[in-house]
């Protein structure tokens, strides 16, 4: 019998990793599905440091659903430890990996340098990064990209097909046909399923046949607010900010959320509803990703692009004429002189670093400023402290009073909500076995109960659990 072992993103949302062992004619083949980074806190750091060990020499192939680091961020470490086989992904994922893994290595190098300076002074042992830029380059050279819908033959008689998951550029649902006990078993891994009502991405494809399904459950306990309401809420915050004469700060994730926000700003602009005359995209990484989304626009939702094209008479330079992309530190610092009337989009998405905290220094203590939170804020981050109502925060060694008005707009999610997950799960015809992954334990229990009402029985696997296919 072939098996699958749950090695990560079990009862949590990061560190995706599943090991598939294909059994046939007295030998076996090992495939790794996902190779994600654990994120958030000391435990995560420790989990990331655990060596892959002998698996590195035994692996035949890696299959990747999409480029987010919690799914891909340990690939360069696997390669640094010696893995030289193929990494199968879509073209969009390959292109995003280049930007994201390079950035990850760069940030890691800077953090380690800073930490090691302190360690040297205090005669402590120096730290090693998980990987460096050379490992990233090597990783990218091992990526093999495939279009959606095309069967790919892997060792051990396994067939792979990617389907559009509608989550971020290149994101895929992974379908694997695996020989097991003399039969062909079909395993479907949802990857991260997109929110069908969000802009730019297509709807997640439905799949109808499977023996076994691994389904994500990030938002398994709730439905998102309808998009129209969210856009109206966003528009009215921008309008009030303009009337008050303050700047609008939007901390945003570089991949997906930034492009979505720019889309909505563009639509508002062409409707004559955007009063601000300056929109800054102040994040070199988000600029790179935005340019990639533009180059790869054929893969995006044609209906959404039609809206943009119509508004701007087909001239892409006119999508958002008030947009300024600031790459250099000098350009970024020049924004500090603008006291009001601008919208500033910058990373990090959870305000735990990046250029956004510099903008905090100049804007957060002004009551006319609006801070618009459009993404998830994990526990322990500055963003979370602000959302939870902190009156003071500490950034860049400085105490700041939070006098700006803070608006949390929850409707811009890149993940399917509960009803959408149940709808996707309900499309399978022959009652496959369901396993919920990539979700917090409480959320998973709520989704499990909701699925049961639709006659779908789902299990919640634990770390290290191994199942037969
Ligand atoms: Zn994702």
Concise overview:
By secondary structure, the chain is an alpha/beta fold.
Chain-wise SSE layout:
Layout (H helix, E strand, L loop, with lengths): L2 E6 L8 E8 L2 E7 L8 H8 L5 H4 E5 L5 H4 L2 H6 L6 E3 L1 H31 L11 H9 L1 E3 L6 E3 L3 E7 L7 E9 L2 E7 L22 E5 L10 H18 L3 E4 L5 H14 L7 E4 L2 H12 L6 H10 L11 E3 L3 H6 L7 E5 L9 H8 L6 E4 L8 H6 L4 E4 L2 E4 L3 E4 L9 H8 L7 E5 L3 H13 L4 E2 L6 E3 L1
Parallel strand pairs: 3-4, 4-5, 5-6, 10-11, 11-20, 12-15, 12-16, 13-14, 13-15, 16-19, 20-21
Antiparallel strand pairs: 1-2, 1-22, 2-3, 7-8, 8-9, 9-10, 17-18
Helix pairs in contact: 5-6, 5-9
The structure holds zinc ion.
CATH topology of the largest domain: Metallo-beta-lactamase, Chain A
Number of strands: 22
Proportion of residues in helical segments: 25-40%
CATH superfamily of the largest domain: Ribonuclease Z/Hydroxyacylglutathione hydrolase-like
Strand order of the largest sheet: 6-5-4-3-2-1-22
CATH class of the largest domain: Alpha Beta
CATH architecture heading of the largest domain: 4-Layer Sandwich
| Poorly predicted spans | none
Rg of Cα set = 23 Å
Strand content: 15-25%
Report the sheet with the most strands, covering strand number, pairing sense and barrel closure: 7 strands, mixed
Name the ligand types: zinc ion
Query: Which structural class should the secondary elements be placed in?
Result: alpha/beta
Distance between the termini: 7 Å
Separate helix tally:
15
- The average pLDDT value, as a whole number, equals 94
Shape, per Cα inertia axes: globular
Integer tally of domains: 2
């Amino acid at each position: 019998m072939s098996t699958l072992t749950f090695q990560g993103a079990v009862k949590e949302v990061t560190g995706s990793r599943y090991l598939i062992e294909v059994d046939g004619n007295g030998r076996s083949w090992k495939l790794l599905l996902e190779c994600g980074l654990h994120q958030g806190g000391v435990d995560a750091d420790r989990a990331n440091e655990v060596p892959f060990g002998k698996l590195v020499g035994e692996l035949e192939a890696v299959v990747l659903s999409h480029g987010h680091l919690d799914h891909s961020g340990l690939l360069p470490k696997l390669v640094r430890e010696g893995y030289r086989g193929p990494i199968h992904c879509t073209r969009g994922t390959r292109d995003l990996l280049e930007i994201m893994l390079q950035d990850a290595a760069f940030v890691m190098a800077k953090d380690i340098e800073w930490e090691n300076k302190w360690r040297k002074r205090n005669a402590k042992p120096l730290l090693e990064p998980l990987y460096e830029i050379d490992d990233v380059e090597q990783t990218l050279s091992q990526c093999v990209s495939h279009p959606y819908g095309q069967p790919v033959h892997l060792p051990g008689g396994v067939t792979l097909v990617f389907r559009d998951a509608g989550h971020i550029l290149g994101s895929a649902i992974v379908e694997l046909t695996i020989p097991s006990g003399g039969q062909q078993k079909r395993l479907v891994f949802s990857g991260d399923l997109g929110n069908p009502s969000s802009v730019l991405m297509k709807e997640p494809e439905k799949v109808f046949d499977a023996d076994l399904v691994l389904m994500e459950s990030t938002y398994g306990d709730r439905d998102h607010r309808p998009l129209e309401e969210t856009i109206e809420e966003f528009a009215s915050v921008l309008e009030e900010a303009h009337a008050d004469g303050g700047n609008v700060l939007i901390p945003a994730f570089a991949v997906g959320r930034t492009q979505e926000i720019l889309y909505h700003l563009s639509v508002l602009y062409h409707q004559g509803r955007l009063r601000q005359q300056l929109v800054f995209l102040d994040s070199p990484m988000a600029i790179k990703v935005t340019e990639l989304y533009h180059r790869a626009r054929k893969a995006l939702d044609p209906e959404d692009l039609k809206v943009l094209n119509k508004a701007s008479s087909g001239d892409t330079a006119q999508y958002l004429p008030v947009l300024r992309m600031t790459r250099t530190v000098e350009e970024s610092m020049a924004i500090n002189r603008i006291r009001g009337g601008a919208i500033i989009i910058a990373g990090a998405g959870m305000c735990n670093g990046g250029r956004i905290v510099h903008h905090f220094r100049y804007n957060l203590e002004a009551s006319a400023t609006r801070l618009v939170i459009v993404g998830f804020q994990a526990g322990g981050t500055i963003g979370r402290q602000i959302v939870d109502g902190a009156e003071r925060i500490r950034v860049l060694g400085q105490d700041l009073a939070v006098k700006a008005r803070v608006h949390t707009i929850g409707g811009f999610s890149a993940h399917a909500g509960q009803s959408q997950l149940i709808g996707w799960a309900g499309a399978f015809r022959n009652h496959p076995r369901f396993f919920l992954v990539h979700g917090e334990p409480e959320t998973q229990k709520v989704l499990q109960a909701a699925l049961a009402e639709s006659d779908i029985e789902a299990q919640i696997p634990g770390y290290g659990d191994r199942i037969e296919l």
